[in-house]
Amino acid sequence: MQIVMFLVPVMLILVAVGVALFTWSVKNGQYDDLEGPAHRILYDDDKDMIPDDARTDKPAAGEPTPEQTAEVSDTADTGEDKSQKG
């Protein structure tokens, strides 16, 4: 009987701690988006890391790649700056 008198208060304290932790996690947004992380891994956001020879969406012949387009726009901007200064 003495063990019951010890275990009941311990159990009540553990339940109170559990409820407090659950309340804290709900207030901090831990349960806001349960499906987002599961769907996020399905998005293909690493196209720029795929080597050109392994791509399945290769640009057509004569069509510039995104890297070449960026280089052209960088050199075009530099040329415009020089003409405006001089």
Poorly predicted tracts of residues: none
Class by helix and strand content? mainly alpha
Bin the helical content: 55-70%
Number of strands: 0
Key terms:
rod-shaped, mainly alpha, 86 residues, 3 helices, single chain, 0% strand
Describe the structure in your own words:
The structure is a single chain. By secondary structure, the chain is an all-alpha fold. Helices cover 59% and strands 0% of the residues. The chain contains 3 helices and no strands. The protein has helices spanning 2-27, 36-40, 66-85. The longest helix is centred in the N-terminal third of the chain and has 26 residues, at 2-27. The radius of gyration is 30 Å and the shape is rod-shaped. It starts with a helix and ends with a helix. Pfam families: FixS (PF03597). It comes from Marinobacter adhaerens. The chain crosses the membrane at residues 6-24. Residues 66-76 have a biased composition (Polar residues). Residues 44-86 are annotated as: Disordered.
